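Key result, reporting period 2: structure in, sequence out.
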């Protein structure tokens, strides 16, 4: 029987709690991640403190609250929040916890109200956050001061191009600084029409795998053809289109752990790349969209907006897939081996009903939780997690594709792994200090 033992180069340090879990030796062509980082609950606890208590996190899109008084209950990495457009039209993010004894103030997923009343002792808060009423206030005595009990907000809340974020670290950099170069790619999404809106409804699903595996997967161009063969076979059969491997793709590290991959896929982009799948009857409308983009942004930028698909990671857990539809996706760990995913579709406001229907159909076919790709991705991540039960014997995951190109400064492709390496390097800097 042949026994394959790791070569010395494969196993640089014994996996112990003092060694870095990210083995980053670019000069030697090695980049490996210790699989303990994907299974250990103590690592997940460290991530909570070092990442999710420190980074800016996505809450929602401003279009989800079209009317004054609209509210949504949102959970942002374990913290219950209320995302509320107050009576004066300002966006508010509150901790969803009554100032009296902490009960959830908002106990339904969504609604519209000028105020919310806590079900426990009926303290009532206005949409602008003040404690507006409570039963038998006199019973608290003359010194009771309602203004001490307004709803609290996360220390930082800000909006970029309609995307609302919060941060639980009062000392964090401001949102535009945090987003850095990722802003350019958010702009390419936000600029697709004068007004964008989140389509009603959302998808929520979960998987028995570590959240970082799905972050990696969301930026992974290498798996497209082998893992999603069913989808590409379907596309060929149904639409006669296929992913052309000769087309140039790109992968880019954007700093701060953010990253993007860019491809030119075979599918229609409802923003302004028509294919027969969008229907003859919609061609003129889509062509007009393209003309409008050209007027607003000139030929080069409008080509980028219309022709190129992109998957953007905003560190740590927001992914924007701008492909055949636009998916806003949050990847939330609930333990080291369990992840919850929420996703929304972002679309051109006012697009014809049939364009909207085709956009949603195309998106759901590929990226819906029951579509032809997402279940493959879930299965792959869960399969890795099961494989990690051998982590003691096989401790390292390889993430070195394109490392020579990275070293020499050559352009990188979507099937390279600079995008995952940049995530992991930032993860290491935060978690391991
Ligand atoms: S906990 Fe909300 S009113 Fe008492
Ligand atoms: Fe995939």
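The corresponding designed sequence is given below.
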């Amino acid at each position: 029987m042949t026994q394959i033992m790791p070569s010395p180069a494969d196993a640089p340090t014994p996996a112990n709690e003092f060694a870095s879990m990210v083995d980053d030796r670019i000069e030697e062509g090695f980049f490996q991640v210790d699989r303990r980082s994907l299974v250990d609950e103590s690592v997940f606890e460290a991530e909570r403190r070092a990442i999710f208590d420190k980074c800016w996190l996505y809450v929602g899109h401003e279009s989800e609250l079209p009317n004054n008084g609209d509210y949504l209950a949102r959970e942002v990495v374990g913290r219950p929040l209320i995302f509320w457009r107050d009576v004066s039209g300002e966006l508010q993010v509150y901790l969803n916890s009554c100032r009296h004894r902490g009960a959830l103030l908002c106990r339904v997923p969504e609604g519209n109200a000028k105020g919310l009343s806590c079900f426990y002792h009926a303290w009532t808060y206005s949409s602008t956050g003040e404690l507006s009423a409570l039963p038998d206030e006199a019973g608290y005595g003359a010194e009771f001061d309602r203004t001490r009990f307004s709803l609290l907000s996360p220390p930082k809340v800000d909006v970029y191009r309609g995307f609302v974020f919060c941060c639980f670290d009062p000392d964090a950099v401001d949102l535009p600084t945090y987003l850095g170069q990722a802003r350019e790619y958010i702009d390419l999404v936000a600029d697709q029409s004068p007004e964008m809106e989140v389509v009603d409804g959302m998808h929520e699903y979960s998987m028995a795998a570590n959240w970082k595996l799905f972050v990696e997967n969301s930026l992974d161009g290498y798996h497209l053809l082998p893992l999603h063969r069913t989808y590409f076979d379907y596309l060929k059969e149904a639409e006669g289109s296929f992913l052309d491997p000769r087309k140039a793709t790109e992968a880019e590290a954007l700093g701060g752990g953010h990253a993007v991959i860019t491809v030119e896929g075979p599918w229609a982009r409802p923003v302004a790349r028509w294919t027969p799948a969008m229907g003859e009857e919609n061609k003129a409308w889509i062509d007009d969209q393209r003309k409008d983009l050209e007027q607003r942004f000139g030929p080069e930028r409008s080509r980028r907006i219309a022709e190129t698909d992109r998957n953007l990671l905003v560190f740590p857990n927001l992914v924007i897939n701008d492909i055949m539809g636009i998916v806003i996706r949050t990847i939330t760990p609930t333990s080291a081996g369990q992840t919850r995913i929420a996703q929304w579709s972002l679309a051109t406001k006012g697009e014809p009903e049939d364009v909207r229907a085709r956009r949603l159909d195309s998106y759901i076919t590929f990226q819906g939780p029951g579509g032809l790709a997402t279940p493959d991705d879930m299965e792959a991540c869960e399969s890795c997690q099961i494989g990690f039960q051998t982590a003691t014997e096989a401790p390292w995951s390889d993430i070195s594709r394109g490392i020579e190109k990275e070293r020499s400064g050559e352009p990188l492709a979507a099937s390279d792994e600079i995008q995952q390496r940049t995530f992991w390097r930032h993860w290491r800097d935060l978690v391991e200090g």
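The radius of gyration is 24 Å. The pocket of FE2/S2 (inorganic) cluster (ligand 1) is lined by residues 98, 100-101, 103, 118, 120-123 (CB under 6 Å). This case is discussed further under Risks and Mitigation.
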